[in-house]
Amino acid sequence: MSTLIVDAVEAPTQSSISDLEAGPPGSFVVTLIIRRFIPEIDEEPRWQDFDVRVLPTDRILDALHKIKWEQDGSLTFRRSCAHGICGSDAMRINGRNRLACKTLIKDLDPTQPIYVEAIKGLPLEKDLIVDMEPFFESYRQIQPFLQASGNPVRERTQSVAARERFDDTTKCILCAACTSSCPVFWTDGQYFGPAAIVNAHRFIFDDRDEAAKVRLDILNDKEGVWRCRTTFNCSEACPRGIEVTKAIQEVKQAVLRGHA
Amino acid sequence: MSVSIESPRVKPAPRRGVNWEKWGWLYMRASGVLLVVLIFGHLFVNLYAGEGVSALDFGFVAGKWASPFWQWYDFALLWLALIHGSNGMRTIINDYTTVPIGGTRLRRLFTPHYIFKTLLVGSTIVLLVLGTLVIFTFDPCPSGAPADLLPTFCAARS
Q1: Which cofactors does the annotated protein need, by name (chain A) (predicted)?
Q2: Which portions of chain B are predicted below pLDDT 50?
Q3: Nearest CB to A220 within list B19, B96, B98
Q4: Is the ipTM above a cut-off of 0.90?
């Protein structure tokens, strides 16, 4: 037991190599090529590869954990619940925006290296972490909260059909996978982006809410819904399967109608 | 110490002027629908109807433009298609160049964004004016032209 600890302290690379050789049955070694950027050291982001022993049912997040815990503790990424709900670990995996905690190794091609980088269009802070503030700023601008008058003593009731109207857009977890996959957002940081429009949709089509007109006015802006060119990147990127482009089109129609 | 939170329910400042993004978007949809009809009508008449593509020559075009119907048809086709195309180019310029901030007006004019947009607007206007002139002032048999340069169907040739 004591030799094992000494090994780990004196020669960490030795232990990681032996870890690569042995492993649970069915496991194999996969190469992750990660776009690293440590602002204190790097002028420009650089690609670094890591060999990790994984099971086909492991997620990219498990592989990233193995790297961080066993090979290079400086690797930095966000994750919280690790089960596809908190929306912390959206990243660009093999050129597509996905949640690291929902992407299984076997669903990629493990014979090829797997490329992992931070989502695009937001300022890169470190490794896989971007500054989410511009994203949340446009989210706040669409007033993402119920605005209803009166002071009911019980809950505000709603019919099943009225709830169904905006069901799809309630699924958003604000991971920014859609917004950071949008080519308009990449070049024009002023554009509200798909996520903000999806969350506006959630309240615009809620029959208990009374501020649809205000939100439609906000999105009728120069940098609002009209910048959307229906490239469908957002719908494809959404880890929750929201029909983002459809929601944006419905908001456009509502703007033209003048009401929800 | 009490903390005051800014009211989040702020009414956005009313917008001034024309909402060009909205009208640009609507124009693309409306002109797109019209262009589908106009372009396929154009292709059908020029390439398929009657003797088909083999009948298409200088005389054929001259014959079409002798009728006000085809003059206005081609006028609509020209304006709708050219503006549709340049509106698309405008969004591409917006995608690939950044809008300059700060500096004098003249300085801003000499940035890629405004150079491209000036070229785009300029060339669109030139093409629209020239095209419209050709459609409405086309004369296959201009008087005073040398007879050997005129097409065979002109009165001056016979």
Answers
A1: [3Fe-4S] cluster; [4Fe-4S] cluster; [2Fe-2S] cluster
A2: none
A3: B19
A4: no
